[in-house]
């Protein structure tokens, strides 16, 4: 997919960019010719991504749940590069596993603030330059758990379902202004977080792969390549829908 998607001259903003998936998406965008603003709360991890003097990169620390900070991110990108073509809302938190009846209010509010409200705030500010330019894409990284439930993941799943609905709302509200919006829902992917939880790739695969018709877990590059395709002209008639990269998990 990367070989057929040309993002030359475009500016992509990615939240949660210090994480494995965020950086994988950023790397695909860079290979396709884009300039990329990496946005994350973890400034130290952010500094370790990419070359220190790469003029194609910006690194911006931000709490996406903060209205002022999210607005400042968009203002900084426009001040540096004078355009914003793609926003990838990838920042997320996984709250502790709790049944709905036991769910701590703080954990519910944290999931909503970061996973959903943060995406709306970033979209709110990013839509202004997109509307002015008459083009743009908002891509929300949701989850298979936005469409199906898993025990103890009620807050996370509800926030991801909200991301799917938010993408549809943006698509409907702004299609006449040349703006597309989509959600991208990965299944279990072999990220460092998953590897830490299970110990290694073999253990994670043994524990989880049987739930997937594909018989395996996903790779971050597979999700990132799908994201890149959705940014390109080949996907220009795709908007207002959820694209699942889940190995068939939600098909059964």
From TrEMBL:
CDD domains: SDR_c (cd05233)
Superkingdom, taxonomy of origin: Bacteria
Alphabetized UniProt keyword annotations: Oxidoreductase
Gene3D superfamilies: NAD(P)-binding Rossmann-like Domain
Tagged with keyword Oxidoreductase: yes
One MF term in the entry's GO annotations: oxidoreductase activity
Keyword Oxidoreductase: yes
Family matches, as InterPro entries: NAD(P)-bd_dom_sf, Sc_DH/Rdtase_CS, SDR_DHRS6-like, SDR_fam
PANTHER family named among the record's database cross-references: DIHYDROANTICAPSIN 7-DEHYDROGENASE
Family named by the database record: Belongs to the short-chain dehydrogenases/reductases (SDR) family.
Protein name listed in UniProt: Short-chain dehydrogenase
Organism encoding this protein: Bordetella genomosp. 13
């Amino acid at each position: 997919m990367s070989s057929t998607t040309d993002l030359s001259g475009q500016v992509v903003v990615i939240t949660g960019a210090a994480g494995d998936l965020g950086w994988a998406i950023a790397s695909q965008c860079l290979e396709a010719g884009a300039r990329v603003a990496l946005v994350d709360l973890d400034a130290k991890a952010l500094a370790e991504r990419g070359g220190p003097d790469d003029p194609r990169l910006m690194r911006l620390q931000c709490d996406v749940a903060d209205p002022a900070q999210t607005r400042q991110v968009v203002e900084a990108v426009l001040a540096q590069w004078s355009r914003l073509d793609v926003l990838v809302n990838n920042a997320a938190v996984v709250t502790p596993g709790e049944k709905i009846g036991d769910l701590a209010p703080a954990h519910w509010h944290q999931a909503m603030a970061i996973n959903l409200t943060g995406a709306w705030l970033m979209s709110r500010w990013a839509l202004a330059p997109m509307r002015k330019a008459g083009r743009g894409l908002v891509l929300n990284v949701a989850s298979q758990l936005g469409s199906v439930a898993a025990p103890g993941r009620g807050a996370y799943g509800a926030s991801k379902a909200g991301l799917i609905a938010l993408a549809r709302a943006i698509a409907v509200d702004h299609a006449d202004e040349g703006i597309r919006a989509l959600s991208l829902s990965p299944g279990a992917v072999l990220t460092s977080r998953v590897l830490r939880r299970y110990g290694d790739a073999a253990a994670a695969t043994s524990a989880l792969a049987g739930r997937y018709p594909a018989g395996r877990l996903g790779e971050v590059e597979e999700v990132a390549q799908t994201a890149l395709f959705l940014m390109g002209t080949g996907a220009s008639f795709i908007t207002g829908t959820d694209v699942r990269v889940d190995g068939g998990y939600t098909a059964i």
